[in-house]
Amino acid sequence: xxxxxxxxxxxxxxxxxRMIKEGSGSLSDIDLLAIILRTGTAKAxxxxxxxxxxxxxxxxxxxxxxxxxxxxxxKGIGAVKAVQVKAALELGKRLASLPSEDRTVIRCPEDVCSxxxxxxxxxxxxxxxxLLLNTKNQVxxxxxxxxxxxxxxxxxxxxxxxxxxxRSAAAVILVHNHPSGDPTPSREDISLTKRLIEAxxxxxxxxxxxxxxxxxxxxxxxxxxxx
Length: 227
Fold this sequence. Notes:
By secondary structure, the chain is an alpha+beta fold. The chain folds into two domains: 92 residues, Orthogonal Bundle (DNA polymerase, domain 1); 112 residues, Cytidine Deaminase, domain 2 (3-Layer(aba) Sandwich), CATH 3.40.140.10. 43% of the residues lie in helices and 15% in strands. The protein is built from nine helices and five strands; from the N terminus they run αααααααββαβαββ. Strands 2-1-3-4-5 form a five-stranded mixed beta sheet, sandwiched between helices. Helix 2 crosses helix 3. The longest helix has 19 residues. The mean pLDDT is 87.
């Protein structure tokens, strides 16, 4: 099978540009290897060299066990490219060997409260935060989206979902505090939440709840049937 020279491909079809636009998950093993190799030779493109490596070792498991000397025997793969491939594979091995991170799982509003109450309850202005969750409702990250005034916080859907998309969140839980200590939601709180839910539906990121923090007490808009 013949693979094109990368510079002859339309920009949107080149592996590096596709990775930037679509993410690494959209690329094949050959595409990813071509990015690592960067350049081809006078007679073979980087894609063809990558295909030759996969063809020689059949799969990534065998490739990960190959030595630099074995890689260097492939036509067009010298010591430099062999080292580049081995370095990338070694990084993958080290990542796979890291102990799994213990992430907090959110099962109910009380789980959210235990995470944020002590920090938010005594603040003198409104902090609007988001818990970003993966598909298992584990907390990926906790992000401050905006800092408001004594009794109001301004949040634009763009700011929330820009962060959520960048962190590959499957869902979010909204959190903000009321400096007055009374967590009763205002009409503005409910309206903002519904607007963020609607924006999330378009993007494909669910808003699971909105928790309002007061002085050692909280209210879940979902539990109250307000969203």
